[in-house]
Amino acid sequence: LLQSAEPALRSRLAGLKVLLLNVSRAVTRDVLITFSPTEGPRMLNITEKGKAGKIQLPREIFRSLSSQTVRMVVTVLNIQRLGMFEEVNQTGQVLDDTVVGITVGETSISGLQDPVQLTFAHGQLPHGVTPQCVFWDPSKGMAGGWNSSGCVMQLGDKGTVCSCDHLTFFTLLLNPSLDRSTAQALMAVATAGCGVAMAFSIFTIAFCIFLRCRFRSEETLCINLGLHMNLMGSLFLLNLAFLLNSGLSSGTQPGTCKVLGGLTHYCLLCCFTWMALEGCHLYLLFVKVLGTYIHHYLVKLCLVGWGFPTLVVGVAGVIGSYGEYSVQTMDHQLIARLCWITSKYLLVHYITNCGYFGLIILFNMAVFGVVTQKSCCLQGTGAVQGDRKAWKVALVVVGLFCLLGATWVLAFLTHDTSSVPMLYLFTILNSLQGIFIFIWLVILYYPKTKETTGSLSHIIRHDKTITVSQD
Question: How far apart are CA 446 and CA 42, in angstroms?
Fold first, then answer.
């Protein structure tokens, strides 16, 4: 067994190369080391030139130590052979699968005034790739991950120089980059999409007003339409706020930018809240079968839909969360300046936007599943009469899906600017959300008579009848 395990162990150890040095505290010059993925680390002469990587350790590191001599360990690891330093959901690729580790003595060294410099040698990088100087951070995520804090990158023709203020395990991460032309195309798609979404929001609101006037005697239907009108109103305001933000944020006064950032955040939270209220309303109608026999039901929903975001934005504004936020590519090219939650208060973004919407979408998808299952059961038992074509049923399902905000789930997949396909998909689908809801309402409610006002209303009334008869 040991003999069979030896080749595998020998292969893995071949991916680990170590250099041990005893360095005096009285060293008069910086310590220079060269390394390569195949030869590992070794001492470098000042006059030596080559294509290998280089490490320059400032003498400040050794002069600050208490002992006269200290042991320095430099390791070069092939992480593919060793199976180490694997980050969950990593999008970038480690250059040559090589990680360089540096330790001096037995204490952790950080906050260097004169940084350690690592030169990672490489030829011309592929198109669409941006290098990033990173180190392994064990505290990131569940099992550790790459972090760039404290490191500054300087890109050259034959290599990339990483200047870092601490000692640990370093590498050069090659990230798929979002170039400036792609970023400008995305901004153009987003701007056009906002215009389309605003137009269809107006169409939908006008159509809902028309239906409310035509079927004013049907209280449940009027409440449904009132809820849809508020959701579309929040979508209209959100798209309008984005257009104002992208057009006015550059060159605005700090006070104006804070107001614009708070307004955009408020519109986004209103949109999320009305999606949640749509889900709660469907839950009451289909699951609890309570109907909407609540005094001033729609007024109370409006207080929550428009009032709760006011409270959240007010608290965020008091602590100074809003200001100028720069959107950049991976190589730090400026894409756009927006008035939004500043980088200093990203925790506010994660809690009020990501966390809040995460809870909403989980609830709404559960409601969607229950409503779809109950509708299919009633269709199968012949509870809902009428010849409904398959494409109409499919469009009704897609519209309901959009009504509950499912297209926003893609926001969790656009975790950085390297997710170009997801960014395009997220931008386009959210531009089409208003169109899907408009088509959904047209198919569902028009042309109808009072006796057959929409399949959803008919299912709700039928379900109530069954419940009462069972009682």
Answer: 79
Strand blocks (E) in 138-281: 145-147, 151-155, 159-164, 169-176
Share of the chain above pLDDT 90, in %: 31
| Helices and strands (DSSP H and E) totals, the chain | 13, 15
User: How many Å apart are CA 417 and CA 177, to the nearest integer?
Assistant: 7
DSSP H or E segment with residue 69: strand 69-78
**E strand or H helix at 316:** helix 297-318
**Which distant-in-sequence residues (6+ apart) come within 8 Å of 14 by Cβ?**
78, 81
Q: Which residue has the higher pLDDT, 434 or 411?
A: 434
CA distance 205 to 231: 9
pLDDT band at residue 229, thresholds of 50, 70 and 90?
very high
Neighbours of 20 (CB within 10 A): 10
Site of tokens 């386009």: 428
For 71, phi then psi, to 5°, come to: -90, 130
**What CA–CA distances, in Å, run from 361 to 149, 273, 312, 325, 452?**
33, 11, 19, 26, 31
Please name the amino acid found at residue 315: V
Residue 225: is it exposed, middle or buried by C-beta count within 10 angstroms (0-12/13-18/19+)? buried
Q: What average pLDDT is seen over the chain? A: 80
Structure tokens belonging to residue 37: 């993925």
Maximum alpha-carbon separation in the chain = 95
**Residues 165-215: pLDDT tens digits?**
999 999 999 887 666 677 778 888 888 989 999 999 999 999 999 988 888
Distances (CA, A) of 421 to 33, 66, 184, 321, 417: 41, 54, 15, 30, 10
CA pair distance 136, 143, nearest whole angstrom: 11
**Region of poorest pLDDT, from 43-57, 58-72, 91-105, 406-420:** 406-420
